[in-house]
Write a structure and sequence with these properties.
cNMP-bd_dom_sf (chains A, B), Jelly Rolls, homodimer, RmlC-like_jellyroll (chains A, B), Crp/Fnr family transcriptional regulator (chains A, B), four-stranded antiparallel sheet
Chain lengths: 209, 209
């Protein structure tokens, strides 16, 4: 699976993504090229599930990824990723390596760069810039997780839907309704009713000419 | 508000907390002692609210802190902190300085160490260890926020309560029920019903003699 040096350009999208936050030294870029792997996951397939050890993060080059857990056989959607971002199954930083409790599923054909945790830990221990980039990315992910946590606690279903729509974080038309309903903590029928009302309202709004 | 050098020992609990993750250089410890302040906030008072600029994090030396937001006048509890941890109002890393949308409230008399964001940013820019500690703390906070986000999406109210109880993250007897209900995304009556059933069940369990 190790790419030869000439094919190392596959990590470019990931390096560019990280370099928004801090320059990455050429030695570390070469390590990423050597130890990361490019993979394609077909629509609806799992990227990670609890039968796998939770041993890597994934940079989503293209496609949509859904995170979900199962609780008493209920499938509960916890987040979506629309690409150009890093995803991973929930993992306590001090309890590793362990099995994932979370599933990652491709909602469209996905192109992913697999980044092993062993590489990430090595980078943290040996490259100052890895800690800077890691700290900045974790701050963004922490912010996003806090927002998801707040969203689910809004008592009114319509307000939850509106809040998600206003945030423009998720392309509501690209997600199967049953996953969107689960993410929003409402039944599918409630979401369908809200959506038809909201679309109806939009139709009736005056259009500038 | 700047303490004199002899009174700098007030930052010790914060430094000890951070040094679990990486040693802090004496120069940075001195900066913390100089720029942090110790404050006491009485039970039920706000530590931060949207009328304040969101300019600092707080290390909770003692007491219980609640985070909440208001949405359409509904008070929604988003987390609790039982001390020996860092709290802050939700804040997008790239949009600063700004006003808080979140409230932090003392649920008991609290002793807090106020850590200005200006100090944190300076530490990140000038001390390698700040990035290491920041990265590790953010990973833990990201994990905790992901768990809160999952908890609120469990469709069944009883399962949410049980999941929270099993996690042993929160001392359920120290939190007023109306805040616990809001955190668990259920009505107060639902929580009261669940609690009396669960307590009843516990009473009936055989006791080893």
């Amino acid at each position: 699976m190790t790419p030869n040096p000439d094919s190392s350009s596959f990590v470019k999208p990931l390096i560019q993504y990280m370099e928004q936050y801090h320059p990455i030294s050429p030695v570390l870029v070469a390590l990423y090229a050597k130890q990361c792997t490019l993979l394609t996951v077909r629509k609806n397939k799992h990227i990670v599930s609890p039968v796998d050890s939770n041993a890597a993060l994934y940079f989503v080059v293209s496609g949509i990824v859904r995170g979900f857990i199962k609780d008493s056989d209920k499938d509960i959607t916890t987040w979506f990723c629309f690409g150009n971002n890093i995803v991973g199954a929930i993992r306590h930083p001090d309890l590793q390596p362990n099995h994932s409790v979370e599933y990652l599923q491709a909602l469209e054909d996905c192109e992913l760069i697999r980044v092993p945790y062993t590489l990430i830990e090595y980078a943290y221990a040996n490259f100052e810039e890895a800690n800077i980039v890691g700290r900045k990315l974790l701050a963004l992910h922490y912010y996003a997780a806090s927002e998801r946590s707040i969203l689910a606690r809004i008592p009114n279903a319509l307000r939850r839907y509106q809040k998600l729509e206003e945030s423009k974080k998720i392309d509501l038309n690209k997600i199967p309704l049953r996953y969107l309903a689960s993410y929003l903590g409402m039944r599918l029928e409630t979401l369908s009713r809200i959506r038809s009302k909201e679309l109806n309202k939009a139709d009736k709004e005056p259009v500038e000419v």
